[in-house]
Write a structure and sequence with these properties.
alpha+beta; 18% strand; 292 residues
């Protein structure tokens, strides 16, 4: 049974034996963030907030399970073969990327710009796929495997905009420290203003708030019950994101989003997943969690 948003954010370690499991799974998630470049031990220690002996011990456990592997020469850590097997087995139930691939190809072919598919992971979004366009000047702000706090970037903002306001408050409170430290143009207040604009115009817009000349436009993909399954987004240089073209791009994404949503309707296990409740009392409590 799914818990509330704050229950999932805090991942309480008071349960017997859960702390090591929480930390190990957090490291597994962190290793996935490094993608094809892999992560060094020092990088993983820094990003996780754990000490070096603990990090190493948990990584060794993940290696023994096959979920993580270490390159013999570079000593960097990557997702292992067992992670691939588990991902493959989960494809039927959570195969959004396979469902959306054709639409991403269509979007990049028609617009000549780069398109993306992103999904939510707790208080962040992760880019599942980047489909290159043919336009010679490209933006490189987002790559497959990159994570941003919810609300940072067109697709991420589109997902956040679909959520109830009380859940948005919880997420922005959980991400406030990293937003203020790493995204100076994206304070929680600014994100709330961008959410209001996205709801009004029917699509989310990142007008160069991460990189000045890199703009993005995003549109949420919905499950049959209305929850956001993920988001399509398109990124381009600012000169290719003027107001008239924003409307054109949004219209193209709506066409592809409807196609994807029609296919999602046939994945019954996905649409049957229960909604995750959020209660107003949770808003004032700052979550504590391993930094990943």
């Amino acid at each position: 049974m799914w818990g509330s948003m704050e229950e999932r954010i805090t991942a309480p370690a008071s349960l017997s034996g859960s702390q090591s499991v929480d930390r190990a799974l957090g490291l597994l998630s962190l290793v996935s963030y490094f993608g094809d470049q892999g992560g060094s031990l020092s990088e993983i220690v820094e990003q996780s907030g754990l000490n070096k002996p603990t990090t190493r011990r948990l990584l060794l456990a993940l290696i023994r399970s096959g979920l993580v592997e270490q390159d013999v020469q570079t000593r960097r850590y990557y997702l292992g073969q067992e992670a691939y097997v588990l991902g493959t087995l989960a494809t039927r139930r959570y195969g959004l990327l396979q469902i959306a691939r054709d639409s991403l190809s269509i979007l990049s072919a028609k617009t000549q710009d780069t398109s993306f598919l992103s999904i939510q992971r707790e208080t962040y979004t992760v880019c599942l796929h980047r489909e290159e366009g043919t336009y010679p000047i490209r933006t490189h702000a987002l790559q497959a495997g990159y994570r941003h706090p919810l609300g940072v970037g067109g697709g991420s903002l589109a997902i956040l905009s679909t959520m109830p306001d009380d859940e948005i408050d919880i997420i922005l409170a959980a991400n406030e420290t990293v937003l203020l430290a790493d995204y100076p143009n994206l304070s929680p207040r600014q994100i709330r203003e961008d959410i209001a604009t996205a709801r009004e115009q029917g699509f989310a817009l990142n007008p160069g708030r991460i990189l000045a000349n890199s703009w993005g436009i995003g549109l949420a993909i919905h499950f049959p019950d209305g929850r956001a399954a993920g988001a399509l987004s398109i990124a381009a240089i600012d000169s290719r994101m003027q107001p008239e073209r924003q409307l054109e791009l949004a219209a193209l994404m709506r066409i592809e989003a409807k196609k994807i949503e029609a296919r999602l309707a046939h994945l019954q296990p996905l649409s049957d997943r229960p909604k995750r409740p959020v209660t107003p009392a949770m808003k004032s409590r700052r979550p504590e969690r391993m930094k990943v």
